[in-house]
Design brief:
Protein name: Dicarboxylate carrier UCP2
Number of strands: 0
Structural class: mainly alpha
Number of helices: 11
Distance between the termini: 29 Å
Keywords: Membrane, Mitochondrion, Mitochondrion inner membrane, Repeat, Transmembrane, Transmembrane helix, Transport
InterPro entries: MCP, MCP_dom_sf, MCP_transmembrane, Mito_Metabolite_Transporter
Radius of gyration: 20 Å
Shape: globular
Solcar repeats: 11-105, 113-203, 212-297
Catalytic activity: H(+)(in) = H(+)(out); phosphate(in) = phosphate(out); oxaloacetate(out) + phosphate(in) + H(+)(in) = oxaloacetate(in) + phosphate(out) + H(+)(out); sulfate(out) + phosphate(in) + H(+)(in) = sulfate(in) + phosphate(out) + H(+)(out)
């Protein structure tokens, strides 16, 4: 990331991978209920979802959380957490940890890469991460969409059982279901999130508004979360619905988007916008702040070990 002083030793790829994955897991642990509320709001209106939740209506992010606690218990807010943490260790490690290296590769090692290079690097690492971590995302979304009510059959009982059942019933394609819209969504999210964070942080430091510390990281992360939510929300809704759908409900992700547009109107693409922003904004703040601090701690520990040896 930008903001390193010339005298600073750049973190190694391993340090960036580990700190990015760990920071993303910390962010997920804190913001997961918001993500679950977002998924429930996004699938609301689907026939399958409506039949499973007759008489239950989700209204707004905090109303959804309140309804889930009342009808399913507080544990329901963390449905899919195991798959979510597995996803972040695979996904964030690549898309965030590898970003600087890919950016440097595209720019030929130039210190200040232009916006086009940064966007290309963000899209590249986002697409790479999804291609690798897609099965974990499919399981996470399906667990979050699963309603834990008496009399309602549960699709899955455990994370590993979910992977096995999806593979047995839907084949390898089932585990990578929605990969194309997810690549599109995460290429958008990654390049917007990382590039916006990069640019905001760079501008703050260049104009000496703040030093390279916690307030700077907080401001940059919050701004990146808002911009990212605005751009990625339509693709995110389509991705969630398509990955959660049973076989045969939609012919493709494009067909899913068309059905949404014709049956529910354009506002359907921004269902769950508020929880998306609350989740992505808070997730960005926790993740980037943790990432910056973990990176520094790991480099400090590495330096001390080298000095002793």
């Amino acid at each position: 990331m930008v903001g390193m002083k010339p005298s600073d030793t750049p973190p190694t790829l391993g340090v960036k991978f580990l700190s990015a994955g760990t920071a993303a897991c910390i962010a997920d642990l804190i913001t997961f209920p918001l993500d679950t509320a977002k998924v429930r709001l996004q699938i609301q209106g689907e026939k399958v979802a409506s039949e499973a939740t007759k008489g239950i209506r989700y209204r707004g992010v905090f109303g959804t959380i309140s309804t889930m606690i009342r009808t399913e218990g507080p544990r329901a807010l963390y449905n899919g957490l195991v798959a979510g943490l597995q996803r972040q260790m695979c996904f964030a490690s690549i898309r965030i940890g590898f970003y600087d290296n890919v950016k440097n590769f595209y720019s030929g090692g130039v210190d200040t890469a232009n916006v086009g290079i940064r966007i290309l690097a963000g899209c590249t690492t986002g697409a790479m991460a999804v291609s690798f971590a897609q099965p974990t995302d499919v399981v996470k979304v399906r667990f979050q969409a699963q309603v834990n009510l008496t009399g309602v059959a549960r699709r899955y009982t455990g994370t590993m059982q979910a992977y096995k059942q999806i593979f047995n019933h839907e084949g390898i394609r089932g585990l990578w279901k929605g990969c194309l819209p997810n690549i599109t969504r995460n290429a958008l999210v990654n390049c917007t999130e990382l590039v916006t964070y990069d640019l905001i942080k760079e501008a703050i430091l260049r104009h000496n508004l703040l030093s390279d510390n916690l307030p700077c990281h907080f401001t940059s992360a919050f701004g990146a979360g808002f911009v990212t939510t605005c751009i990625a929300s339509p693709v995110d809704v389509v991705k969630t619905r398509y990955m959660n759908s049973p076989p045969g409900q939609y012919k493709s992700a494009i067909n899913c988007a068309w059905v949404m547009a014709t049956k529910e109107g354009p506002t359907a693409f921004y269902k769950g916008f508020v929880p998306s922003f609350l989740r992505l904004g808070s997730w960005n703040v926790v993740m980037f702040v943790s990432f910056e601090q973990l990176k520094r701690l790991m480099m400090l520990g590495k330096k001390k070990i080298e000095e002793r040896s």
